[in-house]
Description:
The chain is of the alpha+beta class.
Amino acid sequence: xxxxxxxxxxxxxxxxxxxxxxxxxxxxxxxxxxxxxxxxxxxxxxxxxxxxxxxxxxxxxxxxxxxxxxxxxxxxxxxxxxxxxxxxxxxxxxxxxxxxxxxxxxxxxxxxxxxxxxxxxxxxxxxxxxxxxxxxxxxxxxxxxxxxxxxxxxxxxxxxxxxxxxxxxxxxxxxxxxxxxxxxxxxxxxxxxxxxxxxxxxxxxxxxxxxxxxxxxxxxxxxxxxxxxxxxxxxxxxxxxxxxxxxxxxxxxxxxxxxxxxxxxxxxxxxxxxxxxxx
Length: 279
């Protein structure tokens, strides 16, 4: 695979990262992930806006945003990708020696970009998935797309090891989001999801769902889904860049409803793919 690192397109085995890179030592960096539909980057500007926000929040100076689109398409070309693909962008604060918690604003950031073919997720999207519930032990700045993802990794690994697709996280009695997704519930024909705060990521797909609901007179409510009332809701679904709109049909060992994707979830899926075709 050919990837981009600090101005060069290189085979991944030729890319060397200093052990004094602050991303390696401190998880001092941010990332962004996006995808294509029909080989066109989807919602690129929204993703770049979120990337800028994350960088601003950790005081990391980076200005090469105008180059990212060309870098991504060139990576796809060099890897001979003729299908839709996902893209990963990571920016770390850079190399600093000796290792100190303090950093200088004069450090040059490190930029890493790679692309990969998208997996076929037709089965999950059509039939739904199961999730598990895990305590949210992440830090309190989940609105930043930080590379410090160990709690997410452990929760997701446990979920998959137990035969589930995703771990849905909770703080006290409040559902926040999934380890790499936003989480939605349906009750009495209304869609419910956690309000934006420092405890959840402002998902690009999440924002699309809000717009689609407004345009189609579907009530959407920003309030926390309650853990102790989880099985009083009618439907659930996950959203994300590659997750798209994925129905949740099982939580733990208990089926949601009849174990099939819900009616309103199906409607949101249909509206979403109509939106994709227009953009």
